[in-house]
Design brief:
The protein is mainly alpha-helical and about 180 residues long. It has helices spanning about 10-25, 35-45, 50-55, 65-75, 90-105, 110-125, 130-145, 150-170.
């Protein structure tokens, strides 16, 4: 948590902080182990409790190499773990679906989430049946030259794009 920000006071705020870390984590932008341990400690102080969260918070400096594995477990224990298929392209689409579900669930800011989907998936993946409506909408919004839209209308459109993406990309198959 950056300096000056207050620690989470409620369980919901603690979950939100951990989810924010997870949004970057699932795409390989990992948080430093010390920061993961501190976030876990803040979550425990806010009343959140899972077995791996307690272990993560209790890591000493010599054990920090265990932090990534423990954070993966924390995400699973809290119900927002993301396990993409091993195939790179299927994994990118699964990541887009996960971010879209986080938007629809209210856990990820719609503008931030759509930007992540566009930059981390659509730009890399290119045009395909699942992503075409998103690519078209983002391209249209970026250069229509019309009057500025109210923020509520933009947020509603981005939420609609996320819901539409959830219908276009099937959930990953459960491992056997």
């Amino acid at each position: 948590m950056p300096m000056g920000e207050k620690a989470p006071a409620t369980r919901a705020e603690a979950v939100r902080e951990l989810r924010e870390i997870a949004h970057a984590w699932v795409d390989g932008r990992h948080t430093e182990p010390a920061d993961l341990a501190e976030a876990a400690l803040r979550a425990l102080c806010a009343g959140l409790d899972t077995p791996s969260l307690l272990h993560l918070a209790a890591l000493n400096r010599c054990e920090r190499d265990l932090a990534p594995e423990l954070f993966d477990r924390v995400m699973d224990e809290l119900g927002f773990g993301h396990h993409p298929p091993e195939d790179y392209w299927e994994g990118r689409l699964a990541l887009a679906r996960w971010w879209a579900s986080e938007i629809v669930g209210g856990w990820l800011d719609p503008a931030e989430g759509i930007a992540l989907i566009f930059s981390q998936v659509a730009e890399a993946y290119g045009r395909c049946e699942e992503l075409n409506p998103l690519i078209d909408a983002v391209s249209f919004c970026g250069g229509d030259g019309g009057p500025p839209r109210p923020p509520e209308a933009t947020t509603a459109q981005l939420n609609h794009l996320a819901r539409d993406l959830l219908t276009r990309i099937p959930p990953p198959a459960e491992p056997f």
